[in-house]
Amino acid sequence: MEQGKRLKSVLKEFFGYDEFRPLQEEIIVEALAKKDVLAVLPTGAGKSLCFQIPSLINEGTTIVISPLIALMKDQVDVLSANGIPATFLNSSLSPDELRRRRNQILSGQIRILYLSPERIALTQLAEETKALSIDLIAVDEAHCISEWGHDFRPEYRHLAALRRDLPQVPMMALTATATERVRADIVSALGLDIQQPFIGSFDRKNLTYRIDDKQNGFKKILAFLESRRDQSGIIYCHSRSGVERLATKLQQHGIQALPYHAGLDRDVRSRHQDRFIRDECPVMCATIAFGMGIDKPNVRFVVHQDLPKNIESYYQETGRAGRDGLRSDCLLLYSVGDATKHRLFIDEKASAQEQTIAREQLEQMIHFSESDRCRRALLLEYFGETYPEASCDSCDNCLDPKATFDGSVPALKVLSCIYRVYQHSGFAVGLNHIVEILTGAKTEKLRRWGHDSLSTYNIGTEFGRSGWSHLIRQLIHHKLVQQDPNRFNTLHLTPQGTTFLREKPKLALIQPPQRPGSASPSLPASSDDFDPELFDRLRTERKRLASERGVPAYVIFSDVTLRHIARAYPTTTEDLLEIHGIGAAKLKDYGELILDCVREHQSQSPASEPAANSPSQRLPERISKLGITKRRPQAGAQDRFVGP
Ligand code: ADP
Ligand code: ZN
Known about the structure:
Strand order of the largest sheet: 3-4-2-5-6-1-7
Number of helices: 28
Bound molecules: adenosine-5'-diphosphate, zinc ion
Helix content: 40-55%
Number of domains: 4
CATH architecture of the largest domain: 3-Layer(aba) Sandwich
Distance between the termini: 13 Å
Radius of gyration: 28 Å
């Protein structure tokens, strides 16, 4: 069979998917040609398939290095559920269990072997692997090898030795971290021989990005959650106490929410995490300690109650939403006060170098939050990509563009106020002080410095204090004013600002938000064309199966699959095989149960009809070469299953 066709049939048979996602096929072909690969694809792009499919086609064993023990177990569960023999070795196993697994591996029963990087140093791997035929070494989260990455792990250094011991085995390094520097580190540390890395787009098309004012933040969060009942999501808070407060308040408002942060007992933490992953509790309030290694595909939303410290963190954290490709929403509540808090933290950092980097990153984050440009375009630009469209139709700035007005007069008021202060006192002042002069505040300081006698005193009655702060920050973004972090954040005119004062051109500014109490448009929840009642029934069934087997719900079926079922109303096993995410193994394990669910549902609500009757297709040819003893589908399905 032609290679492309063959790969697709493996994709369908083992994973139940019809199409490859971008770059998956190219990467797989490269790996099958025994070449080294570096793949940089964003979270949710489907990196795991890139080594899982070659492992099904190759004759020997694929080794996968993964840093997270919890994740390893999940991945092995997912593979086993799809009928693919996989196992892992790590420090969580008893000596007996280790011995048992080792024997299994040595007898060639295992296709995919997950190892933690520590294992490489511990075991006499080189010895053991002599007995094995290893076709591929996949290094997941490969950025952990670089000190320049955001998650350096010294254990990853052992991988260089692995390369030395097994020089003939091709390596595949996978990561979701994009910077040039980290990529170069991966290539040199692993000694990869590559022509060109595979770099995917960082555009997460199924995510919507919204930023709202933090004013009335809790009410906004509540409204957001209420339109998303039972959907799973994470709310990130800056501090542990913030997490506790929010979780308690949400519970008091009847929302099932649990806290997660490093201050909780280990047991409590892992219990909460489990409940979240198993869809037993929809909302997780967490510090950023939560999320690394959470592989839950149906996270439908990520809310940032507090401002993240840089764009990279924001991208990583929002990236945990919608890994299954379904529409998911990201909401950030922005306040200037949060930015100030971050600045104070930065001042406490040890080295001047660290402070400079952190400050610059924070300013970029603030700029991103306050900008009126497409959020998606801004994010992609941050990662060195250009977004070709004029509008993404899925961020607040594209969906409801901010009203602008001719802001030349207020801009001139601000600029001349900064100018007058300097002229009068010989020193510069901060943003709040300028706002106080403009709004005619009666403070001791203004009197003492004589700033209440300036010609710009009390000339700004058209806006309140927060309005003026908002406008001044826009002038900073327009580079008319500069805020000097090295001199107590005092405001200075830039050369452009001076020119502006002289030439008085027009300037469009965003209308500052209304005073407290102003409503923000409520965010609609994502809706799709499927039967919600059937979906709920299926979800309950999935939850039951998952608890029975002690695995996360998505190991049984993804949300995408359940929605597909709740749209197509399958009635035969043949129909089932048309469903996204159902391959031979899942058909056997759960086929009858699903059909029962659908039948029961239909008998109770006779109106349900398939959305479209898809013609049944012949099953792809079985890949006899695999030599994997697959469990046979159950009687009734058999005749259709065997294929040509
Ligand atoms: P990554 O490691 O890149 O973050 P994963 O490998 O965890 O992503 O995949 C994310 C989700 O996408 C998983 O649920 C996976 O089963 C699914 N997936 C991967 N490839 C495809 C595909 N070709 N079609 C449909 N779903 C896919
Ligand atoms: Zn946009």
